UniProtKB/TrEMBL annotation:
<dbReference type="GO" id="GO:0003677">
    <property type="term" value="F:DNA binding"/>
</dbReference>
<dbReference type="InterPro" id="IPR039422">
    <property type="entry name" value="MarR/SlyA-like"/>
</dbReference>
<dbReference type="GO" id="GO:0005737">
    <property type="term" value="C:cytoplasm"/>
</dbReference>
<dbReference type="InterPro" id="IPR000835">
    <property type="entry name" value="HTH_MarR-typ"/>
</dbReference>
<dbReference type="InterPro" id="IPR055166">
    <property type="entry name" value="Transc_reg_Sar_Rot_HTH"/>
</dbReference>
<dbReference type="Pfam" id="PF22381">
    <property type="entry name" value="Staph_reg_Sar_Rot"/>
</dbReference>
<keyword id="KW-0238">DNA-binding</keyword>
<dbReference type="GO" id="GO:0006950">
    <property type="term" value="P:response to stress"/>
</dbReference>
<dbReference type="InterPro" id="IPR036390">
    <property type="entry name" value="WH_DNA-bd_sf"/>
</dbReference>
<protein>
    <submittedName>
        <fullName>MarR family transcriptional regulator</fullName>
    </submittedName>
</protein>
<feature type="domain" description="HTH marR-type">
    <location>
        <begin position="10"/>
        <end position="140"/>
    </location>
</feature>
<keyword id="KW-0804">Transcription</keyword>
<keyword id="KW-0963">Cytoplasm</keyword>
<dbReference type="InterPro" id="IPR036388">
    <property type="entry name" value="WH-like_DNA-bd_sf"/>
</dbReference>
<keyword id="KW-0805">Transcription regulation</keyword>
<dbReference type="GO" id="GO:0003700">
    <property type="term" value="F:DNA-binding transcription factor activity"/>
</dbReference>
Length: 144
């Protein structure tokens, strides 16, 4: 009996996204090891290098992560001295996360990572730029 074509792995949208994500994350690993960061911690740092200070919920929204996923990441970054945590004086339920001096200094060590990744992938920059735009467009479909 012949399989329905829509059930073939090569016809799925989810698989190339998943597999590409795993492979790209693997490419990052040697550079992140030098920084002492995991890939999810690196994503947190990217947002904080851009914004400096955010609430946990704002950070979670930017990274599409739930608080229960984000909290252990933030604790580890705090333990490494990269971020500081402060409860809001107006509302104790609100927690602000901000870079420490050490966290800010790490940014200079990470500056070459995007260029290194482009070199490792070895595809035309314009194709990668277009792919990134399509992925952001798709991801935007999941915004609340």
């Amino acid at each position: 009996m012949k399989e329905k074509s829509h059930l073939l792995l090569k016809e799925q949208l989810c698989f190339p996204i998943y597999a590409t994500s795993r492979m790209v994350t693997r490419l990052y690993q040697p550079w992140l090891d030098k920084l002492g960061l995991t890939y999810p911690q690196y994503l947190v740092m990217l947002v904080l290098w851009e914004e400096q200070r955010l609430t946990v919920s704002q950070l979670g929204k930017r990274l599409y992560l739930n608080t229960n996923t984000l909290t252990p990441l933030l604790k580890k970054l705090r333990d490494k001295g990269m971020v500081a945590k402060e409860r809001s004086k107006d509302d104790e339920r609100t927690v602000h996360i901000e870079l420490t001096e050490k966290g800010q200094e790490l940014k200079a060590q990470a500056e070459d990572i995007p260029a290194n990744l482009l070199e490792a992938i070895d595809m035309p920059v314009e194709e990668l730029r277009q792919m990134r735009e399509w992925m952001w467009k798709l991801l935007g479909k999941f915004d609340d």
